[in-house]
Model the fold of this input.
Amino acid sequence: MSDNKEIAKREEKAMETTRALRTAIPSVDIYENDDEILLHADMPGVQKDAVSVNIDNGTLSLTGVRRLDNKGASNWTEFSDIEYVRRFSVPQSIDVQRVNAELKDGVLKLHLPKSEAAKPRMIEIKAA
Done:
């Protein structure tokens, strides 16, 4: 009887670990030009409605959850549901109101436009 209780406890623990999502840090490429910072984050298998992009107090947070639609009993599994999480500090020169994002083929492209004050500008020299 006590063995059954221990097995039941072990099964409960095993079920808890299978429900939790593994967390991964997505690979990113970051480019900068005069107008914006462009960030590419690799999130394979993540659907648009499972992505979250937030900027709060100078921190950019990216999250995306990939859930696999499995049917039937598994014979072999090497990858599973996963949550991609990554955070960055955002410079104050970014115009947060104009930030936009797009997801295509598992790559999140995030456009972080620079504010007008942060863009380089040519200074006109006047003749004295």
In short: The CA atoms of residues 108 and 123 lie 36 Å apart. Strands lie at 22-24, 28-32, 36-42, 51-56, 59-66, 82-89, 100-104, 107-113. The chain has a mean pLDDT of 85.
